[in-house]
Write a structure and sequence with these properties.
Order of helices and strands: EEEEEHEEEHEEEHEH
Strand order of the largest sheet: 1-2-5-4-3-6
Largest sheet: 6 strands, antiparallel, barrel
CATH class of the largest domain: Mainly Beta
Helix content: 10-25%
Radius of gyration: 17 Å
Number of domains: 2
Amino acid sequence: MFTGLVESKIPLIQSLDIGPGRRMVFDLGALAHSEGKPVALGDSIALSGCCLTVVEIEGSKCHFELGSETLSKTKFGRLQVGQYVNCERSLRVGDRMGGHFVTGHVDGLGRVTGIRTEGPWSFYEFSAPIALLRQMAPKGSITVDGVSLTLVEANDTLFSVALIPHTLSVTTLGDLVQGDQVHLETDLLAKYIARQLAAGS
């Protein structure tokens, strides 16, 4: 379980095809050995909102194995060496809860359709599959590339969020341009409500 509060941006430093899957190596930097919460073999880590398992550790470099399903349903199939992803380690019992509950299971891909700035703030609009848009509501929560955000607008065509300067500087969202794809995970509560409504109909 995660919160959607990104701890760091980390680079992809190696990508190797292994059969139908791929082994990807990221440099976690100081996060790998942070006091009280060092990364260990088998840990679950959210990379741009996708929960992956650490299968090998070399200093600050962590190896992850991605199957064909993950590669086909996420942006990782097109991620290039040198590009950055958002990184968040999983919650431990007793950790402070910020953001909202995030599972690390990518529900689908969205696409940036517009960016508007107002002073230091930026407003981003995204398109998304209709099934996901119907699980969103203004003032509700959405996870975009692993970042917990509050929805400004949500309808059957698009959704929008407002990003403060801090979020733009410490996450990969500040690097997005129109047309870029993003990982989306809708709020867990919205999923249960949608499921109950579908069952009732």
